[in-house]
From TrEMBL:
GO CC term, one of those recorded: lysosome
Assembly with partners or alone: Homodimer.
Domain Alpha galactosidase A C-terminal positions: 327-413
GO BP terms, alphabetized: glycoside catabolic process; glycosphingolipid catabolic process; oligosaccharide metabolic process
Keywords: Disulfide bond, Glycoprotein, Glycosidase, Hydrolase, Lipid metabolism, Lysosome, Signal
GO molecular function terms listed in the Swiss-Prot or TrEMBL record: alpha-galactosidase activity; protein homodimerization activity; signaling receptor binding
Primary localization class, coarse: other
This protein's name: Alpha-galactosidase
One Pfam entry name: Melibiase_2
Assigned protein family: Belongs to the glycosyl hydrolase 27 family.
Biological role stated in the UniProt entry: Catalyzes the hydrolysis of glycosphingolipids and participates in their degradation in the lysosome.
UniProt-annotated location(s): Lysosome
Superkingdom field: Eukaryota
Higher taxonomy: Eukaryota, Metazoa, Chordata, Craniata, Vertebrata
Length: 421
């Protein structure tokens, strides 16, 4: 494996061979998740990209540009408005935080106008609030927005992030020359982060960029990454949410079994509280992200979010399903008459069930299902207590194994249930 290493003068190009030890290490991999003690339940937090994208214009839009001010304001609100108490812990910077060039020692640096105090100061501020800071870099020569990539600088960048006090790295996959460099780069950065001795959650986009060329090796991916993106970026639209869910159901045989404590499939950000989803569609995203054991990384403006969206995102019963310590991802097990039924095994023999109405015409629809068919036939054998969690909490009471459960679901909406023995 060979990489270009550029230091200082960009005209000087050195070839760096990976140490033999790393190659030996890679050859004896097991199939377990990344063993760094992190992300034992899905990561929760806030990420700027979907809502704020690459807005660099702090003159015209000082409240919406990618700047230390934006992240400090979000940190304040995460504490004062109950987000931290609900479990949202990581405040994550995405692309466009960097200066256009590295410093004289080859290190990444924050844009001096938009982040005048530097990332270490921002990390200290975020930590003072009891939160953790996430940052963004890219495995290739440039980030997706054209800022300096980490190719040839993996060790330097990992140590820089550790020195700054960063707690999570989102590592994108743009501008990588070939699939070998892509895979090796993701592996190498995982090792480099580990070598710093700092606990840094490692969020990969490896399978997303690998899939157009060949089938991702999830044994490797789960060994090196804490969570990984499989599919396209989420948009603030119902079409986008539907595409993510359709892709997930189509590929669930491949991806569900590889998720677990320490490593998760990441269907991308929660866009609840923005502009594009109806109330029922927001309920569907929250319910299905809980069933999928997905990282809950909001991308919205916490300074102007409706009380209804805030209550949904902070719903402790839904978060409890998402964060269930058993760490099993749910799956769609039935699709009929424009209804999908999903289920997820939980700890203490409990189950979560989601009934989703795919129809987008007409009014609410009733759907009946035999209790005996839920939870692989064991959830309610011989009986269970059923609670409707979404769209509103309702104690439905005791159901014996032979009974039928009837739900009423709004168009494009979802009913989320919890079944307990």
């Amino acid at each position: 494996v060979r990489m270009e290493l550029l230091r200082g003068d960009p005209s000087l190009v050195y070839e760096l061979a990976l140490p033999p030890l790393a190659l030996v290490f890679w050859s004896i991999l097991g199939a377990k998740a990344l063993d760094n003690g992190l992300a034992l339940t899905p990561t929760m937090g806030w990420l700027h990209w979907e809502r704020f994208m690459c807005n660099l214009d702090c003159q015209e839009e000082p409240d919406a540009c990618i700047s230390e001010q934006l992240f400090m304001q979000m940190a304040d609100l995460m504490v004062s408005d109950g987000w931290k108490d609900a479990g949202y812990e990581y405040l994550c910077i995405d692309d466009c935080w960097m200066a256009p060039e590295r410093d004289s020692k080859g290190r990444l640096q924050a844009d001096p106008q938009r982040f005048p105090s530097g990332i270490q100061h921002l990390a200290n501020y975020v930590h003072s609030k009891g939160l953790k800071l996430g940052i963004y870099a890219d495995v290739g020569n440039k980030t997706c927005s054209g800022f300096p990539g980490s190719f040839g600088y993996y060790d330097i960048d990992a140590q820089t992030f550790a020195d700054w006090g960063v707690d999570l790295l989102k590592f994108d996959g743009c501008h990588c020359d070939n699939v070998v460099s892509l895979a090796d780069g993701y592996k190498y950065m995982s090792l480099a982060l580990n070598r710093t001795g700092r606990s840094i959650v490692y969020s990969c986009e490896w399978p997303l960029y690998m899939r157009p060329f060949h089938k991702p090796n999830y044994t490797d991916i789960q060994y090196y990454c804490n969570h990984w993106r499989n599919f396209d970026d989420v948009y603030d639209s119902w079409e986008s949410i539907k595409r993510i869910l359709a892709w997930t159901t189509f590929n669930q045989k491949e991806i569900v079994e590889v998720a677990g404590p320490g490593g998760w499939n990441d269907p991308d950000m929660l866009v609840i509280g923005n502009f594009g989803l109806s109330w029922d569609q927001q309920v569907t995203q929250m319910a299905l992200w809980a069933i999928m054991a997905a990282p809950l990384l909001m991308s919205n403006d916490l300074r102007q979010i409706s009380p209804q969206a805030k209550a949904l995102l902070q719903n402790e019963d839904v978060i409890a399903i998402n964060q269930d310590p058993l760490g099993k991802q749910g799956y769609c097990f039935r699709k009929e008459d424009n209804i999908e039924v999903w289920e997820r095994p939980l700890s203490n023999l409990a189950w979560a069930v989601a009934v989703r109405n795919l129809q987008e015409i007409g009014g609410p629809r009733s759907y009946s299902i035999q209790v005996a068919s839920l939870g692989q036939g064991v959830a309610c054998n011989p009986g269970c207590i059923i609670t409707q969690v979404l769209p509103v909490k309702v104690e439905l009471g005791f159901y014996g194994w032979t009974l039928t459960l009837k739900s009423r679901i709004n168009p494009s909406g979802t009913v989320l249930l919890r079944l307990e023995r």
